[in-house]
Amino acid sequence: MNPRLLVATAAIAALPFCAQAQQPKADAPTPTNADAQRVVKLITGDKVKSQAYCDMIALSDQIEQAQEKHDDKKADELAQKADELAGKLGPEWDTLMSGLQNVDENSKDGQAIASTLQSLDKICKK
């Protein structure tokens, strides 16, 4: 699996929780690849959501750099911005990201979902 995708997915999934210091949702439904495909379709079909996703990916890279430099204040500021962008992706995105915590990334389903989410990277390379 693509290491960048794993980092980006983990960072994105963790952003709402980092910014708001929430606990993971234990009762979040376990997503399927069909759920991921619906979310990808929603994002790719909407210019505002597509831009928000791309901006969030760029912020996740900056957050990682800030964390490597042990600049927690900067990382927290960036995480808050990313959390705001995640809100623009809609409740379907939030549900999917919350549910990913219940998916084994090495399982067949986990790999299928990761592959589907990786297709979102194409919209950011335009």
Characterize the structure shown:
The chain is an all-alpha fold and 126 residues long. It has one domain (3-19, 31-124). The protein is built from seven helices and no strands. The model is unreliable at 1-7 and 14-24 (pLDDT under 50).
What's the topology here?
Elements: H1 3-20, H2 33-44, H3 47-68, H4 72-88, H5 91-100, H6 108-118, H7 121-124
Helix pairs in contact: 1-4, 1-5, 2-6, 3-4
- As a whole number of angstroms, the C-alpha radius of gyration is 14 Å
**Based on DSSP secondary structure assignment, what is the total number of beta strands?**
0
Dominant shape: globular
Helicity, in percent?
Answer: over 70%
User: How many domains?
Assistant: 1
Helix and strand pattern: HHHHHHH
The percentage of residues in β strands lies in under 5%
Mean pLDDT comes to 82
Low-confidence stretches: 1-7, 14-24
- Report the sheet with the most strands, covering strand number, pairing sense and barrel closure: none
Q: Which class best fits the helix and strand makeup?
A: mainly alpha
- Rounded to the nearest angstrom, the distance between the terminal CA atoms is 23 Å
Count of helices?
7
